[in-house]
Amino acid sequence: MPEGYEFSGLNHVTVTVKDMEQSLHFYRDVIGFKVTMDVGASHDREGMNLAHRAPREGHRMVTFDTGGGPTVSLTEYKEGEGEGILLDDIGVTHFSVTVSDLQALTKRVLAEGFESTRPGFFTDPDGILIQFQEPSHSESVRAHYQAKAQSG
C-alpha cells in the first residue's frame, strides 16, 4: 500500500456522447439507470479547457445511479468528435455493471432494437461497449483469472 494515502474504490465513469437525447433513451429508458443530475456547465472559468483537444464553450452532463458503487455520467459537447472503441483498441474499452438478471435485461435491450456484440455486451448509440454481468459470473471470472495468475 502506498505511504500516506489509501484507495476506497472507483468513484465514477464518464462517457462522452454525440447526442444526449439518444443516449438518455438508451441509458435511462432502455437500460433503466436512474438520473440523479442533469446540468449544463460553461467553460468560461480558468482551467475548464485544459484536458480537451480544443477549447469548448461548455458541456451538458447527466449522472446516473447504477444501484451501488460508481456512478455513470454522460457528457455532451456540441463540437464532440470521435467513435466508440472496441476491446482491442488503446484506451478504456468498456465498463461493466452488475445486474441481478442478465437474461431479462438482454431481452429488454434487444426488444428495443439495440444489438449485443456478445453475451452480456451491448453498444450504446455512440458505439461505447457496456458489459452487464450477474454477481455469480463476476465471482467465477475473478476466480478464473486469479487461478491463472497464481499458476504463472
Kindly give the count of domains.
1
CATH superfamily: 2,3-Dihydroxybiphenyl 1,2-Dioxygenase, domain 1
Instruction: Give the number of helices.
Output: 3
CATH architecture: Roll
| Coarse morphology | globular
For the sheet with most strands, the description reads: 4 strands, mixed
Averaged pLDDT: 84
CATH class assignment:
Alpha Beta
Alpha carbon gap, first and last residue: 23 Å
Q: Which fold name corresponds to the CATH topology?
A: 2,3-Dihydroxybiphenyl 1,2-Dioxygenase, domain 1
The ordered H/E elements are EHEEEEHEEEH
Which regions have little confidence, pLDDT < 50, spanning 5+ residues?
A: none
The proportion of residues in beta strands is 25-35%
Largest sheet, spatial ordering of strands: 1-4-3-2
